[in-house]
Amino acid sequence: MSVLLAAIDASPCAQAVLAAARPLADLFGADPVALHVREGAEERAQQLADAAGVKLRLASGSPVETIIREGAREEVVALALGARGVSGGPLPAGRTALSVIAAVDKPLAVIPPGWRPIARIACVLVPLEGTLAGSQAAGAIVELARHHGACVEVLHVHGREQAPPFVDQAHHAHSAWEQEFLARFLDLPGSAAAVRRRVGEVGESISAVAGEVGADLVVLAWSQVLAGGHAPVVREVLAASAVPVLLVPVAPRRAPEPL
Amino acid sequence: MGARDHERPRSAAGRDLLARRFEAIIFDWDGTAVPDRRADAKTLCELVAQASAIGIHLAVVTGTHVANVTAQLQVRPSGPGELMLAVNRGSELFRMTPTGPELVARRVASAAEDAALTHAAQETVRRLGARGLGAQVVAERLNRRKIDLIPLPEWSDPPKARIAQLLEAVERRLAAAGIDGLQEAAAIALEAAAAAGLSDARVTSDAKHVEIGLTDKSDSARALMRWLWQEGVAPGQVLVAGDEWGKLGGLPGSDSLLLASERSVAVSVGAEPAGVPAGVLHLGGGPARFEALLAEQIELRRQGEPPLVDPDPQWTLTLEDARTLLARVTESLLCISDGCLGTRGSTIVPRSQERPGVRCSGVYRGKGPKTHLLSAPLWNTLAIAQQEDGADVVRTLDLHSGLLAQELRTAHGQLRAVLMSLRDRPGSTLLRVRARGLERVGGAAALQAPADHEQEGQIAAGALRDCEWMRSGDANGSVIALAAERVYGCSEREWGLDRNAAYVGRQGELLTPRHARRALTRARSLGFEALLDGHRRAWAALWEDADVRVIGDPELQLAVRFALFHLLAVASAERESAIGARGLSGAAYSGHVFWDTDVFVLPFLAAAWPRAARAVLGYRVARLPAALRAARALHRAGARFPWESAAGGEDVTPTSARAADGREVAIRTGAQEEHIVADVAWAAAHYIDWSADWRFATGAGRELIVACARWWASRIERDADGRGHISGVIGPDEYHETVADNAYTNVMARWNLRRGAQLAAGEVDREEARSWLESAEALVDGYDAESGLYEQFAGFFALEGLVIAELAASRPIAADVMLGAERTRGAQVLKQADVLMLHYLVPDQTVPGSLQPNLAFYEPRTAHGSTLSPGVHAALFARARESEAALELLRLTAHIDLQDIGQMTAGGLHLAAMGAVWRTISYGFAGLQAVRRGGARRSAAGDRSAGTLLSLDPVAPGELEAIELGVRFRGARVHVRVGQERTSVRCDPPRRMLLGERGEVLVGTRAVELPTAPAAQRRPAGPGGGR
Question: Is residue A256 a part of any domain in this protein?
Fold first, then answer.
């Protein structure tokens, strides 16, 4: 049996995590299981889990180490935890969440506070930065989403300094560029996916487009190094996103392959 | 270390070296091909005939005269392989024809040289005699004198087999005279020749004789390699066979002079008592071994062995496609084309990441902005049972012969293939495959439907008695393909095949198999070898006029040739040639024809292949009626050519698109970028100036230029002061729309009016021509005499004064994406050259001395966000003598596709940038341009007098040692070498040329020199201005 492990505490964020747990589990073809690290609020956790119809697993130890340990179990295919409602600043996702996402080598969804239950994940936004490693990591989730019947929206954000070198004739060039971008980084047989493009700050753009397309989930590939890579983007998205963000680890220290 | 120490062992590696196909064999005669001059050569003759019939070029090299060879070599091969006879020790070259040997070239000695040879020989005999050696001048042959060192009856005619004994006997005689072997005897002869005034005499020895000559076998070897190059055969495809490579009496063996290129494979079938030099494979076995070699080559071809490409790094592009991310880029780069049909260089067993594509020039589908080149059936794919995406594939494009070779290896086996889009048979293709360990899928068709066939209308297919056919498209336009295969089968897993395909495409017609039937039948009847021969000879002929040598930068050299290859590949000498922005190499830009072709591609063709330039103009001429209708629809006169053009000549420019920020934006280029009208006229005039095509100049060309002039005459608005204006346009810098008095548009319009008025003399109403001249004079151009600047358009100088070179971390960059379209519109930021395009196209219409200030002002404000931009600036930097900056931008331009700098190459190649590469060299560095005596204002297209001259104004090519190029100018072949300090030029037949400060000079086949202008100091780059 595959499990999506939803880590909850007794904070209001737990409800949001549990609300997202079942549709996320469905996406992975797994069963949702709530994990609560004993901190004296087990009863509350049980109530919340029961209310969401999710089985609860109790464990002891430090929250971070326990979530990492439990998340490493073979049957766990993905995790979910709450963003704790910190909406800005240098650690928007909360200390626990940041420590866990940096250590877990499985897809991990960060659920924003106040996330309401939905029946299923119907629309997935996949921002791609244009690296092979990132697209491979996100590609696996995209396949799951398509299998699940979800609509997949692909986004690429040009930072101001990363504008393409040439746009000869915009009406021809943009479509040619987009076709090639998809072919390189999300070449799915039978897919008629199009790539949306934005120019500007990456984090802001992802959040804005997620809202525009009505995404239920944002899929972000990342290197799990908070100090570098596109960690600032991850932080920004976690801080600003109104929908769950699924972080998909890529193999570390792979040289990026520019488009 | 003795000579023997250098000898290559008779190793397995050596045998492997010969177990391959050669395209030509150059061989010594006496001792290599035949034991002696009396031997029966019947077997050899049969082999030579067979080799020729199967396409092997053969060349005999000998010291003797032609009759001695043909007495034994009684064969008249019918080809396609040719038989050449390089005789008389490098002084004569014959081609064997069905009626006998035909002289190709002969070195003719002057009377003084002849006398000097005789004197040198007599003096040699005298000097040897003085040392006590009796020697005689025994023969006076063409360009040489033969001195017998051992004039004794027993050594009167020693066979080759007794060479060792002969040498021993000669050296004994020499030693008895106190002469230190053959080496000293040769030195005595050389001194005597020098004393006789022969500074470059060739002294050789066959042990019995010392010969003093004007030529030797090295001259034969060079001439033959040159001949083979013109046949499309590269040095690495040549086998050179001799029997005397090793030293003879301390002198280099006579056959050591046969190796003109180290890329060739050299073998010796001789005894070689002193061993062979490094790099020569010693086989031994004499003429019998040589015959066996020849038989092996014949057998290889009979078994369907594909030709190998000579991997010369300056002529071949080899791509080992490990990075599948670049799969589609690689397909574009390796596109092969004959000008009518283009085939992407996909792996022959296509991978899932690839987008194989075949397109037929000028055959479109769809309407309006959705018009695109029709995808045609695929001829270049194979289905094998062990199809794997993980296969290792190496593809090599031979630029000189237009041949794409592929080698595919999987865990199961390997496959080699060569593909050609036959240059001399537009629309016909040829594929040869040889596979081992891989099984072909049974019943697989030779033609496959294009991947996007669902969008391409009905695909129809069927089989005829001896071939299959497939058609894409419908009655609005279709392409029919016929294909037939010949399979060489050893077994299911070891097999080969030849596949011929013939295509015909037509707009407005539903074609049937009969339309391509004749072409296929003819090609099949000729067979693989004859088709290969014709194809590579056609390519080689194009390169004779087109090649550019970049000396001192091998990487740039290859990049330049790569650009020229694709410009040649996409061109055609057919009646009309529709060359889209990406040619036939990809689907991007839909095959639409832009000013790219008229302004950037045509100048190269006009200089390298005038008939192809004429065909480019043929496309515009055929669409003149549509342009006339477009002008009428706008209530104006003349011809309004469209910004984007396809089959019918109506405007097919889209009117909206999504921008990089996802917003829907209006596209106004179709409505406003009307400088295209003058660009088309400019192309016609440029061709007239360079070709002196009188018929075009007085016919269709004049009609075109006049119709464009009429457009401008009706387009200009006069203000109250009588000044002329053109408003509501977009200039080449497309960041600013709906502007008034764009300097480029106005000056080009002015030029067009003047040229039209001059052309129209006698044909057009005199009053109309006069009004054009008046309008031209009235047009404002934004020039400010104080600053020396042209204002790009009215109000440009009032825009925000951004300097993109300082703002951007690097250029090129799409500034509208970086800054946003709105800010860009309000700023002095250019996408590409605008004012400077005037200095690029019509420098004689600009104020003298205005290049430098405008280059200094506009270039830092240019983002180079168009692939057209770096090349234009490269040329202009060169004109401004800023060679370092020019070279930097030239390198960038030449690598736009090779390094996929724009990230767009997957959709096709950037032909305009490729044209700009050539123009940077020809106009930028060499300063070549057509000028008229008396200045441009007196110019008269169609002037077939000597009034139009080629001007040469060279600038030192930066850190390059030199550049060399050839151009055709008004029927003459001009060759230019621009060195750091000196430039030389030759012209055949002689023409008067303008040579910089030397003024007008008659230039002929003997090089004329002039100084090269030194490069100026480079202006310091602004911060962030790096590219």
Answer: no
